[in-house]
Design a protein that fits this description.
The complex is a heterodimer of chains A (about 525) and B (about 325). Chain A has about 525 residues and is of the alpha/beta class. In chain A, about 35% of the residues lie in helices and about 25% in strands. In chain A, the strands form 5 sheets. Chain A has a 6-stranded mixed sheet, with helices on both faces. The radius of gyration of chain B is 19 Å and the shape is globular. The two termini of chain B are about 30 Å apart. Classes of the chains: A alpha/beta (about 525), B mainly alpha (about 325).
Chain lengths: ~525, ~325
């Protein structure tokens, strides 16, 4: 039996959540004491975010019980979590940008004056007082949210949670977009909240932060709880060991031809001094048949490098050479025409045309459309047979070529998205989180496809991934990214997964560009 | 080939049979509710009315597919009508038609440029254009109407071939070209892509601004075409000639199943939508329904069509 300690403020008992039959949270017990800062860590896909979504009422568990203050509760909606005193401070802060600080803090709980109108004086006075008392920061409550920095917005989110009477805060990757100074201030705010009896659940990839701020830590791996322990009882290596576990060999053995070692040294892509608001002086090369992985935590600028290379975001400086020739890339079409393609991470918003039939999706990039048409006209048969070829090649299971994409499973959608780019036979392929949100079987298929593209077809591949096992399995070279800079480069064979995790979560860089 | 036609036909039936069933029911009701409805004369009259609406609706469909809306078609019709009819005696038929069509195209393109380059919502841009070109039309003729005197102009656009108004043939040709463009050209694919997911279309190398500008330009061009035919049918250039066509064309497109959110819909549906609108209007007129009530009905019909479309998706 599970022991119900009296000092546990929040108890999640044997919670299970399944998606398409797979348990992403698997009988997890998660106990939080009153007045502690409890860190929650685990690799991507370990089940952290699902667990906190359950606790904050965004997602409903399939099994398990939740107790708050000793009482059994059912959190069927975020508003119920608020009523129970639990507030999620998400990565994407959901404040109303066009309103003032005071209006946001008192949203939904506005004080009224004697004739029932909102008492603005009181709102602004109370907001300023509350924020000063809690955080020792002086602000002008009449300032617009849109004029504030990310760190101040975070503070306002917390102030709002306090105004709503929250006794427990869930901070999801709160430091991802903060500078060192701002992180320091956030830590003070969090500690202050604890001193006043508040409870904090703190989720972070940055293990050093976890060690600095946390009282206890719960480590998840593959949807299961591995351990809950006092932070002081665990050192960094121990935490990493618990996060990664003992890795079994992969189900598929990937083909590594030795010939590749000999031929594949021709440089395909050379990036020199790429610079914009998000990425700083990016230098690296991709050779024929090489898989270059970009590893870094959330907010380190992984996707932004790809977006800069492909002309999606504007660049201030930098040179891109393709097979030795300098190419000018100002818009996505330039990159596509020269043979550099970006397979975006969010297939639904950036990649696919969900209402359009599969075969049109597979052909939908300007180069393929141009290749398959004559003076802008195309022959339906040619379209369908070309699409069919790639459907078979990528083993996409669909009943018909004309069904719309939104009726496909995640894995098949991801294959359509990749197929859409393979139809134009690109030279360099940038894959951004290629296996996000797809099931395990499809994942291994993807690994095989990626490996084939590199080793058999000699494509240059840039792999952006937050899943370290994926990087370890596929990459030849690994770039470590931090705050928009490549801080170091390693050959895969020189690194273990634990070392890689250590590298991306702990390296500190000089912060001279920050104010 | 035979199979191809068969599969196309079944596909049409499957996705659009609702519209055509509704059309059939309305038609039957018409036959039984009014003796004049089924007469050849009346049916020819309906066909002529629908053909003008269909031309405008084909253009409107391009704009709505690209996730926009064009409220200015009615004022473009009025403006081009007075422009072309005023130019007729001065520069002759070919040139005045050419100028009229070119003006329609340019007005549409300007709408598109303002929508894309200045990122103003299409509703507002075309709403302003609606006022601007309506005002210009009134200004040109100082509120009066101009009669069409050139017999050739009437011959080209409002005569009959085998007893069928020539406008019907024009509209069918435009409908066929529109269908071809949407279903067999890369431009058509791009229109659906931009309307369905603008960011993804940009990442695919498409220039979404250009596609949208062209969609508005097509709408302007087809509104101008409708203006020329309508002026010929009614034998006048009139600054209020186009009034109502914005609502009717949007209604035809919506009833036809094109989503206002863009990226989904087809001209076969729009044809059905235009037919329903035309037959209904004719019935209202035959029964002497007040034009005010007709407007109410049009509004309700659009709402119902949108509700049905929403339920389907």
């Amino acid at each position: 039996m599970i022991e119900t300690g009296q000092n546990n403020y929040i108890e999640m008992q044997s919670v299970v959540k399944r998606y398409a039959g797979n348990a992403v949270v698997d009988h997890v017990d998660f106990f939080i004491k009153k007045g502690e800062i409890h860190c929650l860590v685990g690799e991507n896909g370990a089940g952290k975010s699902t667990l906190i979504k359950i606790l904050s009422g965004i997602v409903q568990p399939d099994e398990g019980k939740i107790f708050i203050g000793g009482k059994s509760v059912s959190i069927s909606h975020p508003s119920i979590a608020h009523r129970l005193g639990i507030s999620l401070i998400p990565q994407e802060l959901n404040l109303l940008n066009k309103l003032t600080i005071g209006e946001n803090v008192f949203l939904g709980v506005e004080p009224k004056n004697s004739i029932g109108l909102i008492n603005w004086e009181e709102i602004h006075r109370k907001t300023e007082n509350q924020i000063y008392q809690n955080f020792e920061v002086k602000i002008d409550s009449r300032a617009m949210i849109s004029d504030l920095s990310v760190s101040y917005r975070q503070l306002i989110m917390i102030a709002r949670a306090l105004q709503w009477g929250s006794k427990a805060l869930i901070l999801d990757e709160p430091t991802a977009r903060l500078s060192k100074e701002e992180i320091k201030r956030l830590f003070e705010v969090v500690r202050n909240f604890r001193e006043k009896g508040g409870t904090v659940i703190y989720i972070s990839h940055h293990l050093e932060e976890v060690q600095e701020i946390g009282d206890r830590v719960t480590i998840l791996r593959d949807g299961k709880k591995i351990i809950t322990e006092k932070i002081t009882n665990l050192d960094l290596d121990k935490i990493i060991e618990h996060m990664i576990g003992k890795k079994k060999g992969s189900k598929v053995s990937l083909t590594k031809t030795k010939e590749h070692e000999k031929i594949g040294k021709k440089k395909l892509l050379e990036i020199k001094g790429l610079l914009n608001k998000k990425v700083k002086n990016i230098d690296f090369n991709v050779s024929e048949g090489e898989v270059v992985a970009i590893a870094g935590v959330t907010g380190s600028g992984r996707s932004e490098i790809a977006r800069a290379i492909c002309g999606i975001d504007a660049c201030e400086k930098g040179e891109i050479r393709l097979m030795g020739k300098k190419v000018k890339i100002r818009k996505p079409a330039d990159a596509i025409k020269s043979g550099i393609i970006y397979v975006p991470e969010d297939r639904k918003s950036q990649g696919l045309f969900l209402k359009m039939p599969v075969f049109k999706n597979i052909l939908l990039n300007i180069k393929t459309l141009e290749n398959l048409s004559n003076l802008g006209f195309y022959i339906m048969k040619v379209f369908k047979s070309t699409a069919q070829k790639f459907v078979e090649l990528l083993n996409i299971s669909i009943p018909s070529l004309v069904i719309p994409c939104d009726s496909l499973s995640g894995g098949n959608q991801q294959k359509v998205l990749l197929g859409k780019w393979l139809t134009m036979n690109p030279t360099v392929i940038i894959l951004d989180e290629p296996t996000r949100g797809i099931d395990v079987g499809a994942k291994f298929e993807f690994y095989e496809i990626i490996n084939k593209l590199a080793k058999k077809q000699n494509k240059g591949i840039i792999l952006i991934s937050s899943e370290l096992p994926e990087i370890m399995k596929l990459a030849d070279k690994i770039l470590i990214l931090k705050k928009g800079r490549i801080v170091s480069t390693y050959l895969k064979k020189d690194l273990s997964e634990a070392e890689l995790l250590n590298l991306i979560t702990t390296i500190e860089v000089e912060d001279e560009t920050r104010h | 080939m035979k199979q191809d036609i068969k599969s196309i036909f079944t596909a049409i039936l499957r996705s659009y049979y609702n519209i055509y069933i509704v059309l059939f029911i309305i038609f039957i009701i018409g036959l039984f509710s009014h003796p004049v409805f089924g007469t050849t004369r009346n049916l020819i009259n309906i066909m002529r009315q629908i053909s003008v609406l269909l031309i405008v609706a084909v253009g409107q469909n391009f704009v709505i597919l690209s996730h926009g809306i064009d409220l200015s078609v009615s004022s473009i019709i009025s403006f081009i009508s007075v422009l072309v009819v005023s130019l007729l005696p001065v520069v002759g038929i070919p040139l005045s038609i050419l100028i009229g069509l070119a003006m329609g195209f340019v007005i549409g393109a300007i709408n598109g440029i303002i929508v894309t380059k200045f990122k103003i919502i299409p509703f507002l841009v075309t709403f302003c254009a609606l006022a601007i070109y309506q005002g210009l039309a009134l200004y040109i003729v100082q509120g009066k109407m101009k009669n069409v005197l050139d017999p050739n102009f009437l011959k080209y656009f409002s005569s009959y071939i085998f007893g069928i108004p020539i406008a019907v043939f024009y509209s069918l040709v435009i409908f066929a070209i529109g269908t071809l463009v949407l279903s067999r050209t890369t431009f058509g694919v791009k229109v659906y892509a931009v309307g369905g997911n603008e960011e993804a279309s940009r990442l695919s190398g498409i220039n979404p601004h250009l596609i949208k500008i062209l969609a508005y330009a097509i709408s302007g061009l087809l509104a101008a075409t409708a203006a020329i035919i309508l002026s010929s049918i009614l034998r006048i250039g009139h600054a209020r000639l186009g009034i109502g066509y914005e609502l009717d064309s949007i209604a035809a497109v919506c009833i036809g199943g094109t989503l206002l959110t863009g990226g989904e819909g087809s001209l076969i549906g729009v044809l059905g939508g235009a037919l329903i609108m035309g037959v209904l209007k004719n019935l209202f007129n035959l029964h002497g329904t007040s034009p005010y009530v007709q407007q109410v009905a049009t509004g309700v019909i659009i709402l119902v069509a949108v509700l049905i479309a929403k339920k389907k998706s």
